[in-house]
Amino acid sequence: MEQAYVPMARWGRDHWRCLVYVEAVMVEMAGFQVGADPRMTANRRHYRVLAEQCPRPKRPSHPVRPGMVMRPEYATTLADGTQPDPWHDDWSCVQDFAAEGLFTVGPEQVEPGTTLTFSEAGLALTAKLRQHKAAGGQYRDFACEIAPDAAVAGGDL
Predict the structure, then answer these.
(1) pLDDT digits over 33-76, tens only?
(2) Which of the listed residues 2, 68, 93, 123 has the most CB atoms within 10 Å of its CB?
(3) Which pairs from 80-84 meet CB under 8 Å and 24+ separation?
(4) 110-121, pLDDT tens digit by residue?
């Protein structure tokens, strides 16, 4: 079964908040290692796989409490207020980021233990998001109308 990724044009507060967390870890740890992280929502399948294959990813600090399997009502909410499916979690958002070219690897390489780094497009987008927040903006109001590959070609996000 082929994975359906949520395009950037539909991302809402949950995607942007997750992207900022990924960036914060990436800055502190020279990359974002895919693994069980109690700060991120995880559906039943993702929780099991991540806990088995990478239970303690590299983080600046790691809470002693284990993560929990999210309930469907806490699935990712998109910009229009809908949910793509009841099991779309923060790890699904990470795969959406990869599908949009924000990492140096594609979504099929987002596996437990892998350390992700931003592509040029990812760096440009997170800089724009940081500027938006620094100016007092809210995640729910952030929108990026131009595809990230424009940044690679020298365009302006």
Answers:
(1) 999 998 898 998 898 899 899 988 988 876 656 667 788 888 99
(2) 93
(3) 80/10, 80/12, 81/12, 84/4, 84/6, 84/10
(4) 999 999 999 999
Range from 39-53, 67-81, 93-107, 134-148 carrying the lowest mean pLDDT? 134-148
Q: Are 105 and 98 spatial neighbours (Cβ–Cβ below 8 Å)?
A: yes
- Spatial distance between the Cα atoms of 140 and 157, rounded to a whole number of angstroms: 18
How crowded is residue 145: how many other Cβ atoms within 10 Å of its Cβ? 8
Task: Provide the 8-state DSSP code for 155.
Answer: -
For residues 43 and 49, give the distance between their C-alpha atoms in angstroms, rounded to a whole number: 10
Pairwise CA distance, residues 108 & 29, whole Å: 22
First CA to last CA distance, the chain: 33
DSSP 8-state symbol, 141: G
Instruction: Report pTM.
Output: 0.86
DSSP-based three-state secondary structure for 104:
coil
Query: Smallest Cα–Cα separation from 118: which of 28, 34, 26?
Result: 26
